[in-house]
Amino acid sequence: MGTKIIGVGSYIPEGVAKNDDFENHDFFNEDGSSFPHENDVIIEKFKAITGIAERRYLRDDLNTSDMAFFAAERAIANAGIDKETLDYIIVAQNYGDVKHGDLQSDTVPSLASRVKNKLRIQNPYCVGYDILFGCPGWVEGMIQAHAYIKSGMAKRCLVIGAEALSRVVDPHDRDSMIYSDGAGATVVEATDNDDSGYITHKSATYAYDEANFIFFGETNNQEITDRRRYIKMYGRKIYNFALINVPDAMKATMDESGLDIKELKKIFIHQANEKMDEAIIKRFYKLYDMEAPEFIMPMSINKLGNSSVATVPTLYDLVLNGKLENHEVNKGDLIMFASVGAGMNINAILYRV
């Protein structure tokens, strides 16, 4: 028994925050010291490294669960299924249902329960739960859904990645310009077709030295009293970690399949940093003594920023719907999903459309 994707949907918030909108922010280093450059220089360097020109923020009256619901509705409609036939709803998230202006994240009930409620699903045997796995959460949710299907415990699952990072960023930390909001969802079901679907995967957690590369910490502005905690990261450590470990996980996934790397048509990688993603893909192909093919890696980070667990499914939805120039996916194409994030966690899936 295999697993195939039968429906895809995403929700991209309407609010656009451009780089120029950060011109009036007061940025500080982690120790509270000021930067030696003006904001326009900081923003210019930021754009050159990350590739981000703008990002999306959700409306004040919406929460993470709302975005997850919108994406789920679209995926279910795209699949053309009865929502009551879902066995599992798996929602990847990291910060709960963060409400606008609140100091505390709302984590009870789970986002999956909230989504099930919003979908008005009556079937009590449709089980909903959340998964906290950093940015690779949606990919890990897909791995878990495949395990349920492979074992015979489920025939159909809804996997969602949703995050409102704009509500957990420190406005005095220049890394706040990286993050954005969004949601992506897929419906997967059992298949006995050997010609398509889920092929292989690799998943790993590096926590011996790397567990706290991403963490919750205080504002960089030490001149104010702020009770909130914000998402923080050691960017250079993450970059070096990802550059070494993500290509290895991708290669292990590819090698386990026994398929030829030349068959691979697209790599849907977590949209964290344009330069980092380009370096990962280059290193991955170098492991096969090859140059990376042109247009192998779709990118949405320029307009959408880093929406954590939502980036990969949203990117896949955009390509399927012809929304990214020079990128398309056709039946029979061999593709890969890959991600890296807090934990530090890494995963990859090889999939035949």
Which class of secondary structure composition applies to the elements?
A: alpha/beta
Strand order of the largest sheet: 1-7-6-4-5
Q: Main sheet, how many strands, which sense, barrel?
A: 5 strands, mixed
Strands, total number: 13
Compute the CA-based radius of gyration: 20 Å
- Residue-averaged pLDDT: 94
Q: List the secondary-structure elements in sequence, H or E.
A: EEHEHEHEHEEEEEHEHHHEE
SS element count, helices? 8
**Which percent band covers the strand fraction?**
15-25%
How much helix, percentage-wise, in residues? 25-40%
Shape, principal axes of CA atoms: globular
Measured between the Cα atoms of the first and last residue, the distance is 16 Å
